[in-house]
Amino acid sequence: MCELNCNELVKYTYFRGRVALFSILKALDIGKGDEVAMQAFTCVAVPEAVIKAGAKPIYIDIEDNGFNMDSADLSRKLTSNTRAIVIQHTYGIPANVSLIKEISERYSIPIIEDCCHTLSSTFSGKSVGTFGAASFYSFGRGKPLVIGIGGSAKANDDELNKALMQQYNVFISPSSLRRNRIKIQYFASRLLFRPSIYWKLRDLYDLLSLFKIIDGNYESDGNLDDYRLKMSLDRKRLLIKKLDRIDSHNNRALSITSQYRSRIVSNLIKHPEYPNNCYTVFSRYPLITDSKREILLKARKARIEVADWFATPVHPLKEAEWTKVFYEKSSCPRAERMSNLVVTLPVQENVTPRYIDRVIDFLNMFDEKNSDCF
Ligand SMILES: *Cc1c(COP(=O)(O)O)cnc(C)c1O
Asked: What are the residues facing 113 on neighbouring strands?
């Protein structure tokens, strides 16, 4: 069952997830001279919003063999200027909220939960998005519920709720040109997308967003005008419709990931670990492997949807761009290492049973006893 109060997710809706985070930071009065702690092994959207708000991101390493923030490294890196901690539930696996919350309470630093990868996972029986001062969501490509592009924010106390509402009044709707472009993009990808053409479509997407024909996930020069925009009404209506069906969405995701989990049995591939006090609804199913490069190369040829993200500590920024978002090389060694080890599998609605079999057969080929395969 959806523990989530879906109405809360359609109250403050924005052009993108990162704009929702930006608005939360503003509502918390975070800006110049302030630091915001976030994990490395994240999407550039997160530091981009922090920088746009005028603050500085500080990067916390991830847990050993995990994908989420390491609380010990958080303790080490907090300073007297740290004004918020962003907790990311990577791929839908809940972060260790209780350890991080302890630190946040000790130093009175508010938590903002990045729920862009999951709406419904729980930690100790409580839904993600209820642990901090606020949380934010994304409904773009690759997220649990896709409406084209969009985000939302939720505050967990009255004062912040009021501040968010005041903020919200200054956001404007996207132009009709932009609205239509997003609509067309959404319908085209619904119509065209099959996991087997993932690689072709991905190349096309990268090309089109390079030439600014479509809104890509990652714009390295940041379209900063986007930070004034809220979600258009037609996207909001679609979001409400999708939220209505979230239970069936979750059931599908659970059934697909349980097949990956039980049937992928290669000694070169490790399944993700997560604590058993968590209910985990994955948005992508991650695998850890030393053969990342080989698997990606072969997957492209075999037309199997295996994604590489996060391929860098601040995805998709390459090393030369890290300083732009204040990431210092070697400051989060585990995040850097994991970027070279992780591949992720699809769980979205157009993954058919036959396709699941293909993915599983493909991955089971990567095994020491078949090492002549690669
Ligand atoms: C996608 C994503 C976001 C926000 O993305 P938008 O494109 O701004 O909607 C934030 N955090 C993480 C971890 C993400 O993957």
From this structure: 87, 135
SS (H, E, C) 39-90: ECCEECHHHHHHHHCCCEEEEECECCCCCCECHHHHHHHCCCCEEEEEEECH
Res. 1: pLDDT tops 50: no
pLDDT in tens, 271-308: 999 888 899 999 999 999 999 999 999 999 998 999 99
- Atom number in ligand 1 closest to CA 117: 15
> Ligand 1 centre from 137 Cα, in Å?
8
How far is residue 242 from each of residues 246, 288, 302, measured CA to CA in Å? Answer: 6, 31, 32
Q: Residue 117 has which token pair? A: 């990868």
Q: Check pocket membership of 115 for ligand 1, CB cut-off 6 A.
A: no
Reply yes or no on whether the pLDDT at 213 is more than 80: no
Ligand 1 mutation target, pool 12, 24, 114, 309, most atoms within 8 A of CB: 114
Token pair recorded at residue 115 = 């729920």
Cis peptide bond N-terminal to 316, omega within 30: yes
> Is it true that the peptide bond before 310 is cis, omega within 30 degrees of 0?
yes
CA of 19, closest atom in ligand 1: 8
Query: Where does 169-319 have alpha helices with state H?
Result: 176-192, 198-210, 233-244, 246-263, 292-302
